[in-house]
Amino acid sequence: MRVRFGAALGVLAMLSACGGGGGVGGTIIGGGGSTPTPSATPTPTPTSTAGCSLRERQDWALAQLREWYLFPETLPASLDPTPYATVDAYIDALTATARAQRRDRYFTYLTSIAEEDAYYSAGTTAGFGVRFALDTSGRRLFVTEAFEGANALAAGIDRGTEILQIGTSAATLRSVGAIIDSGGNALNDSFGPDTPGTTRTFQFRTVEGTTRTETVTKTDYALLPVSTRYGAKVLTDGGKRVGYINLRTFITTANQPLRDAFASFRAQGITEFVIDFRYNGGGLISVADLMGDLLGGGKSTSQVYSYTTFRPEKSSENETRYFAPTAQSVTPTRIAFIGTDRTASASELVINAFVPYLGNNMALIGTNTYGKPVGQIAVDKAACDDRLRVVALAVQNSARSAAYYDGLASVVPNTCSATDDINYPLGDPREQSVARALDFLAGRSCLRIGSAAATASTRDALRAGGNGVEGRTLLQPDRPSTVQREVPGLF
Prior knowledge:
The chain is of the alpha+beta class. Helix content is 24%, strand content 24%. Strands 1, 4, 5, 17, 18, 21 and 22 form a seven-stranded mixed sheet that branches. Strands 7, 8, 9, 10, 11, 12 and 24 form a seven-stranded antiparallel sheet that branches. It has a six-stranded mixed sheet with strand order 14-15-16-19-20-23, sandwiched between helices.
């Protein structure tokens, strides 16, 4: 068994994220300390069956929570694991009190070592390569994003596409509404298992209005954390150049594209930025630290970026993280962060870290964020391919502020309400969240998140019809995989 720090600030259900810090003895410090596996869908073969019975794994999980859990006072004094058919069910029961207090909303969970290492180290995953979301009716299925190198995008399925019918072949196509009406998890199940070679036939309508039918095969692919199409670009607003970054997830392979993008911004003398975290459920805290450094030009190495704190008896693991500007770092005068209720954890850490430094020169654009100021460590039981993600730490900014369990809208000095308009590509100045971000940077007025006027504006947008521009819910299975926790809506 070993403990790994440097991974998760994450959530189950709609969102997830990562973070870490500190170290214990000779354990690994920093995210993804293993060589990535060649396949995103390994079939783990335990090195030994000893210690891998259900009861032994449940007892092991309980022992780790007793030692590391950030909220030990919420754990039951005793809880018989016998009635629980899985380790996950037992963990959920152990953390029920903290969950009721909104402090651990399924952030503590069991996952696969092999699967998680493949994702965090190389972005390796398997699937169609899209984010799916249901509209407010709960009966229309849209694509909010498609990933380069995966088969859905190659088949012409991209942001704004509506999925009309799904089947195992053209002869078995059923409408999305009919599938949903069949109850249970029928829609999730209709996509089939997340194994390479699984095929599904989709009838879909593109954002341009063209209806097509294509068969798409799930394959292993490397999810790019920074899109080659729109992940880093320069926007022009009234003759002013603005740097735009869309970071999908905080994984190791984000480091170089982020460095390259900021080096370009720096060379062009750009000082105003739009940082788009709208679907970013989090990831490795080491990448969040790099993001802070790249935005931290002009900061000294004595200025605090964040504090990481464990429970009192683990205080030796506490860490103060200082800014460490790089050769690529920029010195922002204003930043507009785009977020939604899918924005969590490591994304929120970055946003919150700049509140004491930028003050009124920063804004949250879009909607309120998820609210997750805590993170996980990873404890491995290698013989069983078990990795337990335990909520063990809290993160704070330099002002020691971390009171955002209800999101960052009440923490960030300025907010601008905006819709996620899938009728336009991400990074397009016509897209409503990007447009409102540019408004803030230019000093133009906007409606605050949560204001009555903003709510009325959203209702008007909903009545506009078409693909819809707000109120979609990213689709998520009951027990999402590691990558689905970090990249919500992914299939």
